[in-house]
Amino acid sequence: MKGMYAMDRHVIQSTSLRFTLSFVVLAIIGSLLLAMPIMHQPGIQVSFSDHFITSVSLVCVSGLGAVSIGDTYNFLGQLLCLILIQVGGLGIITLINVGMYRMHRHVSLKDQYLLQSTFGRDTNQDFSEFLLAIYRYTMIAELIGTGLLMIAFVPRFGWFKGSFHALFVAVASFTNAGFHNFGGSGSLEAFNNNPLVLLTVCALVIFGGIGFTVWFELAHKLRDYWNGKPRSIRLAFHNLSTHTYVVLRMTVWLLISGTLVTWFVETRNPKTMTDWPAYQQLLNAFFKTVCARTAGFTSLNYVDLRPFSKFHSMMQTIIGGAPGGTAGGMKVTTVAIMLALVRSELLGYERVVIHRRTITSSLIKKALVVITFFALMIFAGYSTLLIMHPEINALDLLFEVFNALGTAGISLNLTNQLSTAGHFILIILMIAGRVGPITLLMGLMNRQKQEIHYPKTDIYLG
Question: What is the membrane topology listed in the Swiss-Prot or TrEMBL record (predicted)?
Answer without folding.
Answer: Multi-pass membrane protein
